[in-house]
Design brief:
Layout: H1 2-20, E1 40-41, E2 48-49, E3 57-61, H2 62-67, E4 83-88, E5 91-99, E6 102-103, E7 115-119, E8 122-124, E9 137-144, H3 148-151, E10 158-164, E11 172-180, E12 184-194, E13 199-210, E14 214-216, E15 222-223, E16 226-238, E17 243-256, E18 306-307, E19 316-329, E20 336-352, E21 362-384, E22 387-408, E23 415-437, E24 442-465, H4 467-474, E25 482-508, E26 511-522, E27 542-555, E28 560-583, E29 589-612, E30 618-633, E31 635-637, E32 643-645, E33 657-669, E34 672-683, E35 686-687, E36 698-699, E37 702-713, E38 718-725, E39 733-737, E40 745-748, E41 753-761
Parallel strand pairs: 7-10, 14-18
Antiparallel strand pairs: 1-2, 3-9, 4-5, 5-6, 7-8, 9-10, 11-12, 11-41, 12-13, 13-16, 14-15, 16-17, 17-19, 19-20, 20-21, 21-22, 22-23, 23-24, 24-25, 25-26, 26-27, 27-28, 28-29, 29-30, 30-33, 31-32, 33-34, 34-37, 35-36, 37-38, 38-41, 39-40
């Protein structure tokens, strides 16, 4: 049945394009000519039309993001072919980006991600800060496949490139107020404030707040509430003589509710009653059944989302401060010179009731402080009439200090595992990428990057029995604290290279064919969250070799845009996160973590994306991705010492089919325009956490529909937009954490959300 459904989805996406052709002959009574707009992107660190960039790329404008009541990058799920965007099950600040089977494997900073997020040309090295809030954004570009020559190591899966709005030099502004269920209230505001002919300022701000939609079974309160506030100031100086400078400063403060854990009780386990009733005891509250029982079956969401927090503070607070200075010298003897200097720091503090039940079994107190400094200097030069080249130098330093206090009452009353990670890392790179016109239609691209990365990690682990922990469990005074501890450290450096070579051919004025081969790598490193000293590593870099061919075309007098690409990625020494349980020197069961380089894998597939303008009033869009992502060779060491080769097993977070189909229809109503938009998003079944693809690590397939209805007057100085997400109110698991010997814990996709947004422009 699954294969039949997959064939149906692919066929439907292709044949949906065919009947659209019959609509293009219709002439609009409102507008004699119409077509699709040109989209300009900076995907290869220069401005190009999206249809002439010889890579697979999707761009989403800031206006579209505002219309869909988007909050952060997670809301792009379903808008980008083949991309998985979410978060880890118990760390909502940990961004999970996965493109073509490659992405994040660990929530802590030491593991990095194979998908790189950049903001205004600045890489974001910490996934704790990468689930970026999207306000006052010009556009978001998602580049699929390795991008190492221009974006460096750790972009083997792709790049999410965010471009914020810069001062226009003219006085204008916009305010958007959004109200929705779950007591949601958002405010987005921006204003351009010209100072003089050379200096202009843009101020923007963002507030997002809502209650959580998960019920705390302990006391009936909500869990997962959100309260985010951010301001950005952008100052632009134009000397008028070829020199421009843009200085961006941003401050973010979030005071969110603690991460929730969907776990529950085993079948037959005694339920607990509310405090103050008969049988309540000291652990009051009503228990709820596990989402992941019986064992050996996939986890399933229910109509009502429950969790429980009976012991930990309800908080997940983060502060982020960043500053970026971009300077551009145009028309020099070398070409256009660009310098981007940035500094960013953050701190994150969150408590998690790690067992998600009304009885205190385990909890974590996580604190992280991190900072990064980057410097890029690049030159865009026209060497001759037929040769353009981008070359430059890149430097970065980043560091973080992370502590985690894991209170493991299930192991023994009062037992805690206190660990700290202290890492410093630096990177240097030289890069060049050129385009050479071999004829008026044929173009060669070739590029390379040489990188050196160094990491220094120090880890300390203290396992101890806490007097306070025993008292909390038994309700009386017990023995004094004692502990067993160890430390581990490592320092290493890696030098490697990325390269790309390809050809593109302009078949006609509106059709481009391209192909390229490339090599990229994700840097090695050290494991920070360990139970035994040997797990610190280092682990080695992973290597990817890619071949991709594609066609981009604007057809039928610019009324149909059809882009198709086929790709194959071969990975060696694939980095994989291994989670296991073992006994420490004191005989307690503790959680161990490691990163393996044990696997070779291949990911290959096809991506189809189309946009159509059947009439002046109607726009249609859709995409479908087929992904085959399997291990070629993976000798997996079982807990009993035996080895199982996982050849043929599917990679995690890699659904076979993803698809979307949407439309926008506009008609006259009164003294303005009414627009109806809808988007259907399909995601096939996939796996999380367990390398063995166990039933409990299965994430079910999802079908979601979003829609909005917007009216704006002819004056265009205001609009009202009614929106709804997940119209059918489907209940889905979004992520699973499953480790041997424990009950799996889950996170959920949001239930139905609806609201209204008012926009005011001047």
């Amino acid at each position: 049945m699954r294969n039949i459904k997959n064939i149906f989805l692919i066929s439907s996406a292709i044949f949906l394009i065919i009947p659209i052709n019959s609509l293009f002959s219709q002439e609009s009574s409102i507008e004699p000519t119409y077509g699709l707009e040109e989209i300009v992107v900076t995907a290869q660190k220069r401005e190009d039309s999206i249809q002439t960039v010889p890579i697979a790329i999707t761009a989403v404008s800031g206006d579209i993001l505002d219309q869909r009541a988007v909050v952060n990058l997670e809301s792009l799920q379903g808008l980008v072919p083949g991309a998985q965007i979410g978060q880890f099950a118990n760390t909502p600040h940990g961004a999970v980006f996965n493109i073509r089977g490659m992405g994040a494997i660990e929530p802590d900073p030491y593991a990095g991600s194979a998908v790189l997020v950049t903001i205004d040309g600045v890489p974001q090295y910490f996934n704790m800060t990468s689930l970026v809030d999207l306000f006052d954004v010009e556009r978001v570009e998602v580049l699929r496949g390795p991008q190492g020559t221009l974006f460096g190591a750790n972009s083997t899966g792709g790049v999410v490139n965010i471009i914020t709005k810069a001062p226009s030099g003219e006085y204008n502004g916009k305010v958007q107020v959004t109200a929705g269920d779950w007591n949601r209230l958002d405010v987005k505001a921006a204003a351009d404030l010209p100072i003089n002919e050379k200096l202009s300022l843009r101020l923007s701000g963002f507030h997002h707040g809502r209650d959580g939609w998960v019920i705390n079974a302990y006391d009936g309160s909500d869990m997962g509430s959100v309260n985010v506030n951010s301001i950005r100031a952008t100052l632009r100086y134009d000397a008028g003589s070829g020199f421009e400078a843009t200085w961006r400063n941003e401050i973010l403060r979030s005071k969110n509710g603690g991460p929730y854990i969907g776990m529950g009780a085993y079948p037959g386990e005694a339920e607990y009653t509310a405090p103050g009733t008969i049988g309540a005891g000291q652990h009051g509250g009503v228990q709820y059944a596990s989402y992941c029982m019986p064992e050996g079956t996939p986890c399933k969401a229910r109509d009502t989302y429950y969790s429980a927090n009976s012991s930990e503070k309800d908080m997940s607070d983060m502060n982020v401060d960043s500053s970026t200075l971009e300077m551009v010298w145009n028309d020099t003897s070398f070409g256009t010179i660009t310098s981007i200097t940035s500094y960013k720091k953050f701190d994150l503090h969150e408590y998690t009731d790690q067992d998600g039940t009304v009885v205190y079994h385990s909890g974590t107190d996580r604190r992280t402080d991190g900072d990064q400094m980057t410097q890029e200097i690049r030159v865009n030069s026209e060497v001759s009439d037929n040769i353009d080249v981008v070359y430059g130098l890149y430097l970065s330093e980043d560091s973080y200090y992370h502590t985690q206090n894991f209170n493991a009452q299930f192991a023994s009353p009062g037992f805690s595992q206190l660990s700290s990670q202290d890492q410093e890392r630096s990177s240097q790179a030289l890069f060049a990428h050129s385009f050479i016109d071999l004829s008026d239609k044929l173009r060669l691209q070739v590029g390379g990057r040489y990188s050196k990365e160094e990491a220094d990690m120090k880890v300390e682990v203290l396992n101890f029995i806490s007097l306070d922990g025993i008292s909390r469990y038994f309700g009386d005074d017990r023995l004094a604290d004692f502990g067993i501890d160890f430390g581990a450290s490592g320092k290493d450096e890696w030098t490697d290279w990325s390269a790309k070579a390809g050809l593109d051919y302009q078949i006609s004025e509106n059709t481009l064919a391209y192909g390229h081969i490339s090599r990229g790598f994700k840097s090695g490193g050290f494991v920070g969250r360990i139970t035994v000293p040997e797990d610190i590593g280092p682990y080695d870099p992973e290597i990817v070799e890619t071949i991709e061919i594609g066609v981009k075309s604007d057809l039928l007098d610019n009324k149909l845009r059809l882009n198709i690409n086929i790709f194959k990625n071969d990975y060696q020494d694939l980095q994989l996160a291994l989670i296991y349980f073992t006994k420490n020197a004191a005989g307690f069961d503790v959680n161990g973590n490691s990163i393996l380089n044990a696997a070779d894998a291949t990911t290959q597939g096809i991506e189809v994306e189309f946009f159509a303008a059947p009439s002046a009033a109607l726009r249609v869009n859709g995409s479908v991705t087929y992904l085959d992502a399997e291990y070629d060779d993976f000798p997996y060491l079982n807990t009993d010492g035996s080895t199982t080769n996982l050849r043929g097993y599917r990679l995690q977070n890699s659904p076979e089919i993803t698809a979307s189909f949407g439309f926008d229809y506009t008609w006259r109503m009164g003294d303005g325009d009414m627009s109806l938009s809808a988007l259907y998003k399909y995601n096939d079944e996939k796996f999380n956490t367990s390398l063995l693809n166990t039933p409990r690590s299965t994430i079910q397939e999802t079908d979601l529909v979003d829609a909005n209805l917007m009216w704006s007057p002819d004056s265009d100085d205001w609009s009202v937009n009614f929106w709804v997400k997940n119209i059918a109110d489907e209940r889905y698991i979004s992520s699973v954490f499953e480790a041997p010997g424990v009950v799996a814990i889950v996170n959920f996709l949001p239930p139905r959300e609806f609201g209204v947004s008012f926009d005011f422009n001047w």
